[in-house]
Please model this.
Amino acid sequence: MTQLLQIFILLPIAGFLLSMILPRKRERVISKIVLTTLMLHFLSIVGFITFWIFNGSPTLDIKHVTFFKQSDIEIFIDFYFDKVTAVFACMGSLITLLVGIFSKYYMHRDEGFKRFFNTLLLFFLGYNLLVFSGNFETLFIGWEIIGVCSFLLIAFYRDRYLPAKNALKVISIYRLGDIFLILAMWMSHQIWHQNITFNMLNDAAVVEQNLNAYPGYGVFIAMCILVAAATKSAQLPFSSWLPRAMEGPTVSSAVFYGSLSVHLGVFLLLRTYPYWESMFFIKILIVAIGLGTSFIAANIARVQSTVKTQIAYSSISQIGLMFIEIALGFHMLALLHFAGNAFLRTYQLLVSPSMLSYLNHDMVFNFKAARESDTLSFIGKVKNSFYIWSIKEWNLDGLLHKYLWSPFKWLGNAFTFFQSRTAIVLLIGLFLFGVYSNFYPGNIPPNLYSFLPVVCSFVGLILILNAFTERKDARKAWTTIIVAQLFIILSIALFHEGFGMKHILIFLSGAGACYAVGYFCLQRIQVLDHEVDLDRFHGHVYEYPMLAFIFLLACLGLVGFPFTPTFIGIDILFSHIHKQEIMLIIFIALSFIFMELAVLRMYARIFLGQHKKPYHPIAFRSS
Model:
């Protein structure tokens, strides 16, 4: 029975590859392939669950493919199936099928018809990898695929300013959750000394023994899991990204932010519950986050003027209640709550365009003046205060920008002297000195040698922040990122005996090739159009769609998307950082947060937005 689990991954892969090779004008063929794939998947999952229930509902776990194996680390794909997987897989298959059928007509003759269905199948692949995952590595592959699909669908209407801008906002919050998930994987490797599976977490004796041996590290892992779940499910203080994600087509909003993607934080908490169920502090924190989110989001939803924003905050509010249910141990209730909320929000979003016309009709023909109310009493003043705060969405977006992103932008601008010729010479000298120290550590004073990895990782972080804040030449920012990666690799090679040339080649075999391809694309744009600055959106995708697609692949490969060896290299890199090296892990984690933001910002600025030679009138800023 366990061998059948791979079918639910292979079907979306086959459908995605078939849909990719078809011409974009073949709408009927594309939709048939997509809907056939989704229908086969739904029938297969229903049949499998029925067979599974009649056989006693056993927990299934199968180790599928091993990517890398060494004495102290093993990276492999693992599939897992239990009642949580059954609910999420069945709901995901059914909702994606229904939305796919609706989209066949909704997206008819849209210029991005093929692009939408390609991205929908890629999302479905990532979703199934995530819900069928049996370890953190498999889960993270699906997690990353879903994040990139979100970025692409939010920026679907790529001739407008606001979709591209909001896509960057959303992916920045997603990337924060990605890094906390990587940190949870890193620390679990450190204290378990192996790649743990979710099946192992169900062994209460083993988990208790591990937590008793490393209580502080166990709390750190649980906190990282909670932050990752909160960012993915738009819980406080990360709630403001979900309404911004509604810039994409209504059908993508329904399947992503109404039903499936936004509930993956709930799935993560359910899957890892055996690990943190004995941590009373974590439970209290989850309840507090869920309760605060439910209260604030419900109030915001009641006063919003757009139907999509109302639905977004209403969904956030319900997910907050699911967080509380999971923390209190009511898992069946949380699963039922997820199913009901997913169906409701999908329906609400799909009918939202029609709903607007009904509400306008009702407002015109059934208008009733508001009753007078006492606004001068204490209760009235409190209500008015909550009303104003809710109208402004509690300024969540502004607070995140001020206290989370602005300090790093300031830091990147403060170290612009790193781009001067003198600084470049000094950086080359530091790098060569680091390489020499790696091969001849005995010739370096011990105090200096032990401090060198932190210095190299800090330099890598500053270079990436320079690329993140670069406003002029995209080629300079692109080169800065690969140089920063060299410093990060050097910081791990120093003082870490297990990290050798083989691991470096695994990392650079993907990143180096993608850097070369990406630089070629930028150079080609410079020759053809003479504009590769990052001060505004250029919209080059209209003139050069193939270059845009190749550059997007290069961006994803440079930051370690799962289709390149760099993904394995990043896992190996983190696994060699010792748990005592606090500053090193902080600098490297921050580097990987801003690295993806910097390269996707380059893609958005160069290829998205309104082109300077529009073929039809387009407003520069979205309403």
In short: The two ends are 52 Å apart (CA to CA). Residues 415-607 form one domain. The CA atoms of residues 189 and 195 lie 6 Å apart. The chain has a mean pLDDT of 85.
